[in-house]
Amino acid sequence: MIKKRLNREDFKDKVIDCHSHVGVEIKLYCRGEYPYAQTAEGIYYKQLSSGVDVNVVFPFSVDLYCEPTRLLAGERIPAKKPLSDVPYKVENQILMREIFDYCPELSSRFIPFTSVDPARDVSGQLDELKKLDEKYPIYGIKVNPVGCQSKVLELLGKGKAFLDFAAQRDIPFIFHSTTVPNDEYSQASDIFKIVERRPELRFCFAHCLLFNEEFFEHAKESPNVWVDTAALKIQVDLVNQLVEDKVINRSTLIDVDFSDYRKVMRTFCQMYPDMIIWGTDSPAYTYHCLRKQGKDSYQEFAYKGTYSNELEALNSLTEELRRKVSNSNTIDFIFGKKNKAMVLS
């Protein structure tokens, strides 16, 4: 029996966190890094304590497809005998089972996105997505290029079929994105090439585009693009560090006061009121790890935030802006700006 797919009206007036993870990241756990796991039930209790009604959720990682010993070295390459014979197969299955089979009483509080690797075994991944689609509602696709160590531009090559799959079902994409030069996988400039080639699809750039003014303006001019605020507090900490270390130039950033993440939130939501959607990146609003950014490039992260920080940023907005970034903008991103029948039976 196919699970009912909710529509935009079901989420009217709900506070929606558009970016959160369910599952386990084995690489982080094995290396003693943090955070490494979260359950849907755990998110539910955060919702109760914070006034959040709904979370968009997707798997943590592609690790069950990867060679365990290489995970310890921070590298994700296919295993000879993987625990998941297709990238994200098991992780996507467990996500859906957890929400709809194991915790059905909570299912209306979650909007599940599946994850894909843009390059590896695309046909196998598509077969598995189609099987899931026959039983569970898929509301969107999450792509974390640096997480699976596949370049995002593969979506215009090997991974083109994922774009077609989404177009056929009218579902959007969320991309992990960055403007930091040493990340070879997730460059915002590459993602915009995909946006321009597929204007019929909807796209969200996660993590505030690292506050790059050129890309914010580019996004503003693109009617099919949104930007999320996931892990805002530590994104502000990161960009301050990158400016101090002369990795990026302050002149390339939007004109905001980076001394306080709440001021940043208020300013860029006022600048781009129809484009921003609120997300926490739960539980990765704190991030301690060594991450492979490219073939010979690694970056250490040691940033501390809390769920409360992300809520404080949201609650620092006017009521009108808060409604837009935690509800109406998010609904437009997920379902499109026109009301379409979205119920399967």
Structure description:
The longest helix is centred in the C-terminal third of the chain and has 17 residues, at 319-335. The protein has a domain at 8-14 and 112-335: Metal-dependent hydrolases (TIM Barrel, Alpha-Beta Barrel), CATH 3.20.20.140. By secondary structure, the chain is an alpha/beta fold. It has helices at 26-30, 40-50, 68-72, 89-102, 122-135, 145-148, 160-169, 188-197, 213-220, 232-244, 261-271, 307-315, 319-335; strands at 16-24, 37-38, 54-59, 110-115, 140-143, 173-175, 203-205, 225-228, 276-277, 287-294, 297-303. It is 38% helix and 16% strand. The protein has 13 helices and 11 strands. The chain is globular, with a radius of gyration of 19 Å.
